[in-house]
Amino acid sequence: MSELLEDVGDVLMFLGAVVFLVGAVGVIRLPDVYSRLSAVTIAGALGTGTVIIGLFLNQPSVGSAFTLGLALLIQLATTAVGGAAMARAGYLTGAPRNEHTRFDDLEAEGEQETAPERHPGHSRPDDDA
User: Which of 30, 36, 33 is nearest to 90 (CA)?
Assistant: First the structure.
């Protein structure tokens, strides 16, 4: 059974490396900053997750479960937050979008902020009354 777990762990670590490789190709091939960031954050989270699970299957113990679980938790949290922060920074600095981008959620959000009377949660009393 232990040899089977090690083999499954080796396969998962290899798959994690393949996910990193696909993410690297995505950084080179994708058209704009936002698509590239998506490739990096997804590859970082999925690749790290599969590698860490593979490591645990190769060395199963309570100590390694705690250490690897903590490493996975930190990696997933920082990848998501870092990717969102970099995408927002790219947007605020005017990084060009791909021409196939159909909708800009942040632009729609900005329109609501500039016209609070149209905002559905607006609760200020009218100054006219």
Answer: 33
